[in-house]
Specification:
It contains 12 helices and 11 strands. The protein has a 5-stranded mixed β-sheet with strand order 7-8-9-10-11. It has a 4-stranded antiparallel β-sheet with strand order 3-4-6-5. The chain has a two-stranded antiparallel sheet with strand order 1-2. It is globular.
Length: about 280
């Protein structure tokens, strides 16, 4: 009898843990907006670029489900007096993040709150998930992902996987890369000499300057320092893909160090038709 009671207790505990684990599993991004009434921006979608916007933005009333009118004398598209304001007009990164970005993502995984190192990743989960912050007007909550919770942390996603995710979800690979990988504060030009690459190969890491501008300003690498060499070696040894932004601001994908390999965000070489003519290519 005792053994049966103990068994029932263990089964009940296991079932409870299973329910808790399922409720804390990340909801696919597209489903959060389509099926759970989440307004893009109620989480950290708009924090990545500015470093300031987050869940508090929606609570302050600045984020709206539709364009709204500020009393005034201008006639808006609906023929009413006032100023027509949309989220895209109020937030410079709203279009890229919330109209063509997050709602297109069919996968479930933790993404960066902000760009930088170290990264803190997050996702939407059920409101039944203990410790997650409920999102007003929905049945979901915001969870901060941690390594110890079997969360789908994406900061070790490989460049080939990022290229594939971008292809499958019809988004730019550099955008996905910035959302999954940590980004160092130094620019690529500050550390490139520490890679040991030849001058010609380093020149090729600046290919986006030529592609976009038709000319390349970069002439030669900076002098290598022991501090930069040590830092680069530590990043390689960590095995975590790490981005360095280029001083050439038109290159959104930057350069990626992944173990002993270096990847450039540049023209596609795979011949695959895609929404983007660029992806992450290994320097060989």
């Amino acid at each position: 009898m005792k053994a049966a009671l103990v068994l029932l207790l263990l089964v009940g505990m296991a079932a409870s843990l299973h329910v808790q684990k399922n409720s804390c599993s990340c909801i696919p991004w597209k489903s959060a907006y389509k099926d759970h009434n989440v307004l893009c921006g109620q989480g950290y979608e708009l924090a990545t670029g500015s470093g300031s916007a987050g869940p508090e933005l929606a609570k302050m009333g600045r984020l709206q489900r539709s364009a709204f009118i500020t009393p005034g004398t201008v006639t808006n598209p609906m023929g009413k007096a006032g100023v027509w304001e949309s989220n895209s007009e109020k937030f410079p990164n709203y279009y890229s993040q919330c109209e063509t970005g997050y709602p297109a993502l069919s996968f479930a995984g933790c993404l960066n709150k902000q760009f930088g190192t170290p990264t803190q990743q997050w996702c939407y989960v059920s409101q039944d998930c203990k410790g997650a912050d409920a999102v007003e007007g929905t049945d979901v909550a915001i969870k901060e992902c941690t390594d110890g919770d079997d969360d789908d942390i994406m900061n070790e996603t490989t460049p080939l996987e990022v290229n594939k995710l971008a292809q499958e979800n019809l988004v730019d690979p550099s955008w996905i890369g910035n959302l999954v990988w940590p980004t160092e504060p130094e620019e690529w030009e500050d550390v490139e000499a520490a890679t040991g690459m030849s001058h010609e190969k380093m020149r090729m890491t600046h290919i986006m300057e030529y592609v976009i501008q038709g000319r390349m300003k970069w002439k030669h690498e900076k002098e290598v320092t022991q501090a930069k060499t040590d830092k680069l070696q530590a990043i390689k040894a960590s095995g975590v893909p790490t981005l360095f932004r280029s001083s050439y601001k038109e290159n959104p994908g930057g350069m990626l160090i992944f173990g002993e390999k270096t990847y450039v965000f540049g023209p596609r070489t795979d011949g695959v038709e895609s929404i983007s003519d660029f992806n992450y290519v290994e320097m060989v």
